Amino acid sequence: xxxxxxxxxxxxxMLGAVLLCYAAEVFVCLFGNAYQERLVALAGLxxxxxxxxxxxxxxxxxxxxxxAAFYQIGAYxxxxxxxxxxxxxxxxxxxxxxMMMLVAAITAGFAGFIVGLPSLRLKGDYLAIVTLGFGEIxxxxxxxxxxxxxxxxxxxxxxxQHLSIIWLLAIICIGVFRNILKTGKGLVFTxxxxxxxxxxxxxxxxxxxxxxxxxxxxxxxxxxxxxFAHYEGFITPxxxxxxxxxxxxxxxxxxxxxSITGSVVAAISLFYLPEWLRDQPNITAASFLSAIFASGVFxxxxxKAMDRYYQNTFQKISAISFAVCASVGFKYLSTFFxxxxxxxxxxxxEGNQLRMVIFAAILVVLMLIRPQGLLSNFELSWKGIQKLIxxxxxxxxxxx
Amino acid sequence: MELSVLPxxxxxxxxxxxxxxxxxxxxxxxxxVLRLINFAHGEVFMLGAYGALFTSWYLGFSPEDVxxxxxxxxxxxxxxxxxxxxxxxxxxxxxxxxxxxxxxxxKQPKIACLITAIGVSLFLQFGGALVLPNTPPPxxxxxxxxxxxxxxxxxxxxxxAEKEKLxxxxxxxxDAFQQQFELEKKEHRVTNPxxxxxxxxVLRKNKxxxxxxxxxFVISEDLRTYTICLPKGQLxxxxxxxxxxxxxxxxxxxxxxxxxxxxxxxxxxTASLMGINVNRIIVITFAIGxxxxxxxxxMSATFTGSPLxxxxxxxxxxxxxVAAVLGGIGSISGAVLGGFTMGISETLIVxxxxxxxxxxxxxxxxILILLVKPNGLLGSxxxxxx
Lengths: 400, 386
Prior knowledge:
- The complex is a heterodimer of chains A (400) and B (386).
- By secondary structure, chain A is an all-alpha fold.
- Chain A folds into two domains: 32-278, ABC transporter involved in vitamin B12 uptake, BtuC (Orthogonal Bundle); 284-349.
- Chain A contains 16 helices and four strands.
- The model of chain A has no long low-confidence stretch (mean pLDDT 84).
- With 386 residues, chain B is mostly helical.
- Chain B is built from 14 helices and two strands; from the N terminus they run H-H-H-H-H-E-H-H-E-H-H-H-H-H-H-H.
- The interface between A and B is large, with 41 and 43 residues.
């Protein structure tokens, strides 16, 4: 009985996910412009990328910083296939896309297997270097391949822009990794992360586990690459540089390595942050500098005020509000004084120029005040939500 | 793939390798004491180059000054001041980065440090682009460099007589043309050397022919005699590298600070039990490594004259990083060896005709070395502790 119920529940969840994605696509197409639609699509791709990198980095503890390579392999596999079959051979767009995703996932998974093999010998930093090098090698090789357009890039036909498929892939990715981690077979991944030698001593095939993680993570990145190629309709090697790898890695680390929820949240927010900064009006050098000083003051006050672990909630809230007030006050004060200097008053920065600076600064600051990531080990789950609701209800009832 | 340019290419590789080894030394020293790949090291190199640029401007070699007086010539002490300023600037930058970005994370897992390093690197690149001059990219004026020109070494005997003869012919043709040009300038007010009379046109063609013959003779003779061209500036660079390496060797092997460094690299916690101030040693290591990167930045910017942007350190930083791993990360002589290996193999790849694969092959070499000998060429083997 219970088994049947779980099956039914799963079926409904899957159906619900499909419907939700479709509804999201319809909603975005109805109420948003092309730019917003593209942002939503790319955010979905970033979610897939960061969750799949989290499988390698956070959950299995293998340090890979070349994730863009697998993304690129997926995209270029699809690009090459579209050259061979330019009319998509009479398939309708969704089944063609699914086929392409599968092929890209297999190719990228194979590449992941090849990169995963050195992890038998290499650990930590050295593995990081090898994956970084692999990413560069793939990019430069593609740049020199005339079949796929070299550094000019190539067109991918047909251009299939299904927002819902992109988000469905993200949801499948989340679901697969989450469910694997709940089974006994999935526990070995965290075991290898926590202590390799100890897990080898209890009979866990460490090598196999590591390579499996690499293959799974890179396969999903490859599938995302296939969707990216079809969504954009045009790919260049310049879209898959080391910066992209660093960005994905940052999403994983900011969200908290090992937390899939964290990866999703960080991927979406870090993807939207630069786009939001792009829209901001120009600011003067004086106010930018004072903002930097003020955030320094904020961190300093907060860390000094929060250092005492015997505080109760009220004291914590007052400490935070004190820090906020102090930093805001400092910001206005320092802006006033800095604007007395004519060079600082007249120098203006565009939001577009500042976005990478602020991105980098947030990265550094977040790592300094919370190195384990925003949601270090927290996972969102149905049970957790249920507990939270019942707890709140209980509290409300008691209060009444 | 001309065999006769091979010696020249190897020399070029050594000269490039000098810069790589200066940067790689910083990577290796920091990795030795902290077990941290300092991704911001390439940006320290970039700031060193900018420091040298501003110093050269301050010394009177800004573009306006040189435009006003194109015949001005630098002295060797101009270069020395630029080198020192670049090193001092980079020392401060390195210490600041260490204090604000790495020290608070000393007790945290290494990956957090690495992310911070990436963040610092991005911050310096893009934040630097806001304040440092980079459009159009400035470059250090070559007038500041007194070591212009180059030495030529030939393996086979050089046919100087033929060269002199051709040069004399070229001179004669040039004189004749100039005379005719002056004449027509005076008589017909012609200012364009391409709009002369028929006689002038013949003389101009003759001069061009002589010039072509002279140049092609020089090139073919260079190829025949395996001539190597040694730019004087880059020789100075090699000598400076040698001096800096000697100083570094003295510090590491002969002073108490160096002993402390070696002890911290061996085992930081035991070293601190033996009364070594680990934090102080780490700061000094950062300072020395960054100063070396600054020297590399100054020399690279001065002697190659390449335009500076805030992304100047990206490629050399990566290559030097590969060089550091190649030589054995954590080993000082390994960094130098790796740097030269990297430089030479890079030019050899270009010599073979695969210049577009230059970066890829650097990384392939790296992966191969890591798979065969994971600790690099000269790295010491580490036993993993449970």
